[in-house]
Amino acid sequence: MASLARLSTRLPRKLPLGARALQTSADSTTLTEDASHSKPFTVKLHEDSFQSHRTDTPSLEVEVSKDELLGMYKTMTTMRRMEMAADALYKQKLIRGFCHLAIGQEAVSVGLEAGITPDDRVITAYRCHPFAVLRGGTIKGVIGELLGRQCGMSHGKGGSMHIFTKSFFGGNGIVGAQVPVGAGIAFAQKYLERPVATYAMYGDGASNQGQVFEAFNMAKLWDLPCVFVCENNKYGMGTSAERSSSNTEYYTRGDKIPGIQANGMDIIAVKQAVKYTRDWVTSGKGPILLEFVTYRYGGHSMSDPGTTYRTREEIQRMRSTQDPIRGLQRYIEEWGLATEEDLKKFDKEAKAEVDHAVEEAKASPVPLEKDLWTDIYYKGTEPPYMRGREREEIHYY
Amino acid sequence: MSIALMKDDLAVVFGEDVAFGGVFRCTMGLAEEFGRERVFNTPLTEQGIAGFGIGLASMGHTAIAEIQFADYIFPAFDQIVNEAAKHRFRSGSQFDVGSLTIRCPTMSVGHGGLYHSQSPEGFFLGASGLKVVIPRSPIQAKGLLLGAIRDPNPVIFMEPKILYRSAVEQVPMDDYEIPLGKAETLTRGSDLTVLTWGTPVYHCETALHMLSSPPESLAKHIPASVRSAKVELIDLRTILPWDVETVTESVRRTGRLVIVHEASRTGGVGGEIAAEIQNRCFLKLNAPVKRVTGWDTPVPMQYEKFYIPDALRILDAMVETLNY
């Protein structure tokens, strides 16, 4: 599979002559010692797993363990199953409105979570479902929210993009709006002198929003412990990065803020880059940019078939040569950590877990009519009344 | 703000130039007293300031942001309307930015022109989840600002900029709050209600005085029959959500309403209030609800004094309404 990726004649991005391409295959990490079943062992990432700007690249030697890799495999598989379930529910017209899936980008969410602590903070944009689960939510809570049910993580009032946990400040429906909010969160952490990091995530599309640069400037000015993460899936809605951005090296766009570009398809590289950036911001060096080069298999949202601005062959090639889950599967099998049968068992368990959560979520009732009037103002400080959907419908507090 | 900073360790004040007092000297001495970690300048970044404040407030901090002029709030409009106002609802109350207060100088200054004399309060009317407050005097400003800072909802606090220089009052040193969402009746009356907020409160007071004892040059325009009219003057104070009960109760007694605001008429707050009042008081009204507002033009630099509703225009509207 990796060899297929290297045979590919099309470079993932336009490069000046002589520059080296970032390695974006999911399975180019190699063993440096025999894989152990009981204690951590060291592996070596592909030498082009990272590029850097105004800083060194993270070390290519990474310590991993069997349990960790199997855990990542299970979680990535479960997240993909959850997104597939959302896809099916949407097509059954049970989920309405907007829905953006992160299938293909699992290494970023699962790898990020593996590299941070529960006290760190994460805020992201549209593709937020996996983060919501990983940061303390549940699959039932996410699916329930998408279905608009009471069991949803925002009690069915937010829908996709508006799912929160104590350490996850949500998805966000306004392109780029979460980035300055992330800077504010990081400021609060610095003010409270907590040795933790904020990961403010956005896509290659949002990277051209003015307020993203406003946030960069404030973060650097005040040396905030903020990692600005650009999830570059190569298309901002239906426009390719090359057609939207004068500089597609997103990790270099922070001016004086250093940056790391990382292979977002190899979860071991993702985790390594996350750890590096976390160390950077928590040691008081100020903010850093982190670009993950990744790929989404589906369209931008459910209403986008995703094939009008790129070829089916391109998607198929990415799926077959750079899939993050298949890449990790290959490591696990080649390094003798588990057999194909073991992994198939995990797949079945993931499907069963998601199916169960979907059924539970479906059984949950929709929010009560009275819930329309709550959570607008703090309880007890509401205006005397609010108008409803019809002339006669007026709610008095 | 000094009280808020003193009593609340998590309170921070930030905005363009606030560390050395701000353009209107509102934050003078705060940076020296509380340190530059808590009172600091931001870049000229309105959208960023709003977003930053929202992030800070969602971590539980008391975020007191300043947008240097209400005219500059428009780059931050998205953050305020789409993020701050909806934060609580979209997270089912798990997160909120209730501890966010955005201060901004508003209304005309006499020579501000297009971008320093606007009154954008009406643009926020549709943003449920948000509160909008406009005080009329220093005592009111202190009490309402402390109320706004401590109110568990995000508040836009608009300070009429001409009053920074012209309004003088002995302000109590103590900590006190004036509740949000409550209008104040300044003079009681039975024949006409005049409703306003911010700077025009003073123009209304002048107009009331002119009505009862018109100067000689105006006397021929003021029929004797209206000079004894008892006019009720109400300062709305909180624009969103506005105090419907107080205004309704007043108009039910007086049967007449004149609304005065500086923002232009079309899409202004006056239209919303007029519609609601005629709905609730239709059979009690003796005259159509009258609006005295800025014109539907940008605020003109050279003709600003003709743009804003002055005492004469208010007087004219009162006479017309009383004689209807």
TrEMBL record, chain A:
<feature type="domain" description="Dehydrogenase E1 component">
    <location>
        <begin position="75"/>
        <end position="367"/>
    </location>
</feature>
<dbReference type="GO" id="GO:0006086">
    <property type="term" value="P:pyruvate decarboxylation to acetyl-CoA"/>
</dbReference>
<dbReference type="GO" id="GO:0004739">
    <property type="term" value="F:pyruvate dehydrogenase (acetyl-transferring) activity"/>
</dbReference>
<dbReference type="InterPro" id="IPR050642">
    <property type="entry name" value="PDH_E1_Alpha_Subunit"/>
</dbReference>
<dbReference type="InterPro" id="IPR017597">
    <property type="entry name" value="Pyrv_DH_E1_asu_subgrp-y"/>
</dbReference>
<dbReference type="Pfam" id="PF00676">
    <property type="entry name" value="E1_dh"/>
</dbReference>
<keyword id="KW-0786">Thiamine pyrophosphate</keyword>
<comment type="function">
    <text>The pyruvate dehydrogenase complex catalyzes the overall conversion of pyruvate to acetyl-CoA and CO(2).</text>
</comment>
<dbReference type="InterPro" id="IPR001017">
    <property type="entry name" value="DH_E1"/>
</dbReference>
<keyword id="KW-0670">Pyruvate</keyword>
<protein>
    <recommendedName>
        <fullName>Pyruvate dehydrogenase E1 component subunit alpha</fullName>
        <ecNumber>1.2.4.1</ecNumber>
    </recommendedName>
</protein>
<dbReference type="InterPro" id="IPR029061">
    <property type="entry name" value="THDP-binding"/>
</dbReference>
<keyword id="KW-0560">Oxidoreductase</keyword>
UniProtKB/TrEMBL annotation, chain B:
<feature type="domain" description="Transketolase-like pyrimidine-binding">
    <location>
        <begin position="3"/>
        <end position="166"/>
    </location>
</feature>
<dbReference type="Pfam" id="PF02779">
    <property type="entry name" value="Transket_pyr"/>
</dbReference>
<dbReference type="InterPro" id="IPR033248">
    <property type="entry name" value="Transketolase_C"/>
</dbReference>
<dbReference type="InterPro" id="IPR005475">
    <property type="entry name" value="Transketolase-like_Pyr-bd"/>
</dbReference>
<dbReference type="Pfam" id="PF02780">
    <property type="entry name" value="Transketolase_C"/>
</dbReference>
<dbReference type="InterPro" id="IPR029061">
    <property type="entry name" value="THDP-binding"/>
</dbReference>
<dbReference type="GO" id="GO:0009083">
    <property type="term" value="P:branched-chain amino acid catabolic process"/>
</dbReference>
<dbReference type="GO" id="GO:0006091">
    <property type="term" value="P:generation of precursor metabolites and energy"/>
</dbReference>
<protein>
    <recommendedName>
        <fullName>3-methyl-2-oxobutanoate dehydrogenase (2-methylpropanoyl-transferring)</fullName>
        <ecNumber>1.2.4.4</ecNumber>
    </recommendedName>
</protein>
<dbReference type="GO" id="GO:0007584">
    <property type="term" value="P:response to nutrient"/>
</dbReference>
<dbReference type="InterPro" id="IPR009014">
    <property type="entry name" value="Transketo_C/PFOR_II"/>
</dbReference>
<keyword id="KW-0560">Oxidoreductase</keyword>
<dbReference type="GO" id="GO:0003863">
    <property type="term" value="F:branched-chain 2-oxo acid dehydrogenase activity"/>
</dbReference>
